[in-house]
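--- STAGE predict ---
source: upstream dedup step, 1 unique chain passed
mode: sequence only
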Amino acid sequence: MNSSVERVSSRIDPVTAQVIWGALENIAIEMGHKLTRMSYSSIIRESEDFGAALIDVNCQQLCESVFSTPLQLGPISGYVRGIKKILEMRGETFNPGDVIIHNSPYYGASHGPDVAFCVPVFHRDELIGFSVTTAHHLDIGAHVPGSCGIVDAVDAYAEGLQFKAIKVYDRGVKNQPFWDFLADNVRAADMVIGDMEAQIAACRIGAERYIELVKEYGMEAVLASSEYLMNYSETMLRREIEKLPDGTYDAEGFFDGYLDSPDPTKKDLKIAVTLTIKGSDLYVDFTGSSPQVDDRPINMPFEGTVCVAVYLIVRSILLDTEDHDYVPQNHGLTRPIHIYAPSGSICNPTFPAPTIARFCPGNIVADTVMRALAQVAPKRVSAGVGNLKVIAYSGLVNEKYWVYMDITEGAYGGRCGKDGLDCVDTLYANTRNNPIEDIESHYPLRVLRYELRENACGAGKWRGGFGSIRDVMFTSDGRASVEGDGHKFPPWGIFGGRPGVPGALILNPGTPNEKSLPSKISDIRAKKGDTFRTVSAVGGGYGDPLERDPHRVLDDVLDDLISREIARNEYGVVITEDFRIDEPATERLRAELRTRR
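--- STAGE serialize ---
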């Protein structure tokens, strides 16, 4: 930020700053609405797996669409930094009318399928910022159909097309050879290119609205207001960090990796977190985490995934909107947080290590940072979180590919005073549930079963959330690839709470051909009638299960979530055959269980 803006920022009217911030946020929200209404795929239209933001010339995020996902929004500043770096290396510049595509995980992106479009914004021939959208695309030309479940990619080149700051419009002129090349090298090209054109249109709307705002208030006032609000957000977060005791706090988390691999370096992988608090600064160090896996795509881009997971958890825990006034989401919230991961580790891989399946490991990063924060903010955290699964269903109809990405929700752990959330996308995912009607009306798939998981309990004073069970059947021949985790390591319990229950993946359940599958599979060929069952994990419990209100236990029994046997064995609650609490027997049993434990 130049000195003239800093001077204006120091004396900007707070009311004007709020008005300008509201206008900026509305621009980003409008960008998001335009994108979802114009998109072709359900992953954007229904699940809202996209991001939209305005960025200043110093790559600081000014605002973002609130109707989106943290994993799409968080990396946007990094995308722009990567674009600027690549253009500088090539000796290229930003010009009015440019539209740039970018998806390189080694230059700020989250992973290859999350493609960004960036429109540089000019006012009176001066570059004043960037209008950016990101979105998940259902195919980018990897070696198997889809953009999830690419779990056997051996390097970055096997993951699909790499777009490193390519001008798809140059000074307003469409780069037609690029679009022709793209159409020839992605499956379901009409859908993918349609989604990309929707992104470009949303970016252009954002640029137009940003220019209108600058014309109304002036460039200095807009930037000064933005800096004022960034300073405010930074101050609010620093105040919360300062309330925590100085010190160093450690935690470890584990994820499956490739459980069916004979190679021990590919499974039972570790995330190590050392969290240090010094005054109003928070340092997060991932030294001790597993080395990168050179030939499997579960490595996590440092800036586009690991940092985003950390920022999300810190903000969510320390600035929870249930306890605080809303704090604007902008670059100021990143300033007090300092993140390090050794180069060559799974949290900071080196090119060309593949990264496309980084989602589930990134959830473990967020989960483990929360576990470390539990030592200093015990009433603000949840117990361990159940991870998600994503299946790429695909097939051919009249020599054309169809591709659908199905997300099986996870579950949160119990929280102080509240049970864990059931059957939701967790942590930095936050995508929306895709309606069954949408799936069955667009694809040769039928959803046979979709319900909460039963009799799998993360017991606690406040229990873990229940995951889901989902059966999806092919109504014609096709293929499936799965990206998931959480089959071996259950979500952790805390403060006496029990661990949750791992998930599962089953092919053709209840038939003679039933087969249990690992959490990651690549490109299984499916016949008409084949069915995939995804079983998501149950979150961990918070607090001693023997302290749970017996009437809450009874409610779970009446809701068919747990059996009377689980109520007795885990909670020490005796429920009669006519579903009443036997209070004297419950008191005796709980006393006996406390003695045993």
